[in-house]
Structures are given as structure tokens and as C-alpha cells.
Write a structure and sequence with these properties.
- The chain is of the alpha/beta class and 359 residues long.
- It is built from 11 helices and 13 strands.
- The strands form 4 sheets. A 5-stranded mixed β-sheet has the order 1-7-6-4-5, sandwiched between helices. A 4-stranded mixed β-sheet has the order 8-13-12-11, sandwiched between helices.
- α3 packs across α4.
- It is globular.
- 52% of the residues are buried.
- The structure holds coenzyme A.
- Coenzyme A binds next to α2, α6, α7 and β12.
Length: 359
């Protein structure tokens, strides 16, 4: 009997504190108009809790939607480029909080493409019989690596988490086409330099994203469109067969260009970038969850995931969704309320970059 992997659960966790375009106008030379017209972003979230807390809640919501408990999870894949520590992987914290005592757990870093990389890997592991149930999480606390004096980057990124549960099934579902790509020769145009082990002792020198925005933009448009076209062809679909494109939410103009290349009706494109900005590996599972909540994924619907990010990585998957598009159960819990303003949350960041300017 054939073995496939079906998405049976989905969930998200967004911190409550909003950083709006109007807020950004107070700290960098920019305007709501400029940010909206160049990126589509109106606001983003800033987390007052650790990334693993967001991941745990998104994971628990996904497990509730799937109707499983943590003891039934074989593997936790935690896609992130903002881990809480190098050792252990953040996945260990998430596993402990969930009480997933029978699971293996690891972080996966393919930057903004991390969720799609993880999805293709989870699907393959299940099809191969190496796992029956995988919890795949995309989570980022990008405010941690943001320089809120740099208007070209700080307007784009935010914090959040999304998750899906994949389970073995005999009905045809899951990945029908996939592309995983990277151009490491261009890695320097989107990176956090001087962090990690590249130069011993340098880890605290500068911890911030630097990006050549227009170069990244051009490459993202080409790579996401090419990868999407390839997976649609691999799946044997025509453009009319696509029910919903769920793209990485980095810039609305990148998403629009991808849809134009596919000749896809904008009504079949999931967009929520205005609300959360770019949450890197978390954008697609958050967008997928919101698409399901809005009834935009039909039973056995044909979806395309497409992403681009640091590395420079890109990835796409043509995905056949399962029969069930309603959650089996929902949980009421939320992240704890924050008693700090957005400025109080960003204060350590300002202190840090103020100190650097004085050096
Ligand atoms: N407010 C006002 N002006 C800004 C600004 C801001 N927040 N950020 C940059 N500018 C200025 C620049 O300084 C530049 O001014 P100059 O011409 O006097 O030098 C001008 O706007 C145009 O900059 P440019 O970078 O060419 O703009 P753009 O149209 O490419 O848009 C980005 C900038 C960052 C929105 C866009 O390049 C982008 O989204 N890139 C991809 C980012 C991305 O997706 N990264 C993650 C990949 S997953």
C-alpha cells in the first residue's frame, strides 16, 4: 500500500505587542507611505517571550487541530534562524515544554526557506517509514537581530511562530513536486556577520542583520518564480489547478511578481504580510493557518509553498492537502499578556546599538 504524508494539524502563535509603521516613523527616517508601497507591511509583532514559548503554543495548537497529544509525536523539526542558544538546539526546549517524551528533536536553519525545507524533509521521512508523525514548527524572534537605527531592514521583520502536524496516510496527499536550492556564493548579501564561531571571540561584536535589499529583491523574484513553476510542472498541474499559493511573506511586490509569472489570479494568493511583516521561517505556517481559518483551503486542495531567504536559499513545494480542513479541536490558551510597552521591549536593542555608536 502506498504511503503518503498528510497535514492534519496547524496552528500559530503571535505575540500581542505591535510595532506599527507610525511607531517606526518616530525612530527612523521613514513613512507609512514608503513602507506600505515598497513592502506591503503595516505592522509587525515584537515578542516579550522566548522563541520556544511561541513555538510551544503554535505546536500545541497544531496538535489539538490534529487531535493528537505530544506522546504521539515521533520527531520535532524546529525551523529557525534565531535560536535561543547554540547548545542546546531550541528544539530541546520545545520538546521539554510539550512533554513530547517519545520524540526526536532538532533545529533546522535554512533561514526564510526553513519551513519549506523542513516540510519536504518531514514528508520524505514519513513516506520512507522513518516516522509516522512529525511536528514541524517555523519560529523566529527576529527583533533580537534587528538594528532599529537601520531603516532599510528594521521595517521588514517581526516575531512569530506557526506549526503543522504531518501524519502518515494511505490517501494520496503531501508533496507532489519540490525544489530545494541555495547559492552560497551570494550569502554575504543577507547575513548576520561576526556571529557564531567564524572568528573566536567575535560573537558579541555586532549582532544584526545586514542586507543589500535591492539585490536580494531581484534574486528573490527570480528564484521564487522559477521554483514555483518547476514544482507545478513536476506535479503535472496547469495553473488553473492551483487552489492557493502560500508564499513566504517577505515583500508584497515579490509575491505579486511570483503570482504574475505563474499567471495566477491574485485571489488565489495568500497574503498576510501587512499584519506581521517578514517572520522568516514562520511566515508560511502562519499564512497557511490563517488560510485554513478563512476557509481558503478546499478539501484535497492543491497548494504551492514558495520561499526565499538568507543563504541564499530558496524552496518550493506543490502540495496536495488532506480531506479534513477543519481542526479536530482548538485550545483557548494564549501567550501570557505583556506588561511592557513596545519601547520597553526594544530598550535592550536601543541600548546595544547606542553603545556601538559610541565605540
Ligand atoms: N524609508 C524611506 N526610505 C528608505 C527606507 C525606508 N524605510 N529604506 C530604504 N530607503 C531608501 C534608500 O536609502 C534608498 O535611498 P537612495 O536612493 O537615496 O539611496 C531608496 O529608499 C531606495 O532604496 P532601495 O533599496 O532601492 O528600495 P527598494 O525599492 O529596493 O525597497 C526593500 C527596499 C528593502 C523594501 C526591498 O529592497 C526589499 O524588500 N528587498 C528584499 C528584502 C527581503 O525580502 N529580505 C528578506 C529575504 S527573505
Amino acid at each position: 500500500m502506498s504511503r503518503y504524508a498528510e497535514i492534519t494539524g496547524w496552528g500559530k502563535a503571535l505575540p500581542p505587542t505591535v510595532l506599527s509603521n507610525a511607531d517606526l516613523e518616530l525612530i527612523v527616517e521613514t513613512s507609512d507611505d514608503w513602507i506600505t508601497s515598497r513592502s506591503g507591511i503595516k505592522e509587525r509583532r515584537i515578542s516579550h517571550v522566548a522563541a520556544s514559548e511561541m513555538a510551544e503554543l503554535a505546536g500545541r495548537r497544531a496538535m489539538a487541530a490534529a487531535g493528537i497529544d505530544a506522546g504521539g509525536v515521533d520527531l520535532i523539526l524546529n525551523a529557525t534562524c534565531t535560536p535561543e542558544s547554540i547548545i542546546p538546539a531550541s528544539a530541546s526546549y520545545v520538546q521539554a515544554m510539550l512533554g513530547a517524551t517519545k520524540a526526536g528533536a532538532m533545529d533546522l536553519n535554512a533561514n526564510c526557506s526553513g519551513f519549506v525545507y523542513g516540510y519536504v524533509m518531514a514528508d520524505s521521512l514519513i513516506r520512507a517509514g522513518a516516522a509516522d508523525t512529525v511536528l514541524l514548527i517555523g519560529v523566529e524572534r527576529l527583533s533580537w537581530v534587528m538594528d532599529y537605527t537601520d531603516r532599510s531592514t528594521c521595517i521588514l521583520f517581526g516575531d512569530g511562530a506557526g506549526a503543522v502536524v504531518l501524519q502518515a496516510t494511505s490517501g494520496e496527499a503531501g508533496v507532489l513536486g519540490s525544489v530545494l536550492g541555495v547559492d552560497g556564493t551570494m550569502a554575504d548579501i543577507l547575513c548576520v556577520p561576526n556571529d557564531g564561531t567564524i572568528e573566536p571571540g567575535s560573537a558579541s561584536a555586532v549582532t544584526r542583520i545586514v542586507m543589500e535589499g535591492s539585490d536580494v529583491f531581484r534574486r528573490a523574484v527570480t528564484a521564487m518564480a522559477d521554483a514555483s513553476e518547476t514544482v507545478v510542472r513536476q506535479a503535472g498541474w496547469e495553473v488553473d489547478d492551483i487552489d492557493l499559493l502560500v508564499p513566504h511573506q517577505a515583500n508584497q511586490r515579490i509575491i505579486d511578481a511570483t503570482a504574475r509569472r505563474l499567471k495566477l489570479d491574485p485571489a488565489r494568493v495568500m497574503l498576510n504580510i501587512h499584519a506581521y511583516g517578514n517572520t522568516s521561517a514562520a511566515t508560511i505556517p502562519i499564512a497557511l493557518t490563517e488560510a485554513l481559518e478563512a476557509g481558503r483551503v478546499p478539501p484535497r486542495g492543491n497548494l504551492v509553498f514558495a520561499a526565499f531567504g538568507g543563504g541564499l536559499t530558496w524552496a518550493a513545494a506543490a502540495v496536495r492537502f488532506g480531506e479534513r480542513v477543519m481542526p479536530r479541536a482548538e485550545i483557548e490558551d494564549d501567550l501570557p499578556a505583556s506588561d511592557r510597552s513596545v519601547w520597553e521591549l526594544l530598550q535592550p536593542n536601543f541600548d546595544y546599538f547606542g553603545r556601538l555608536e559610541r565605540l
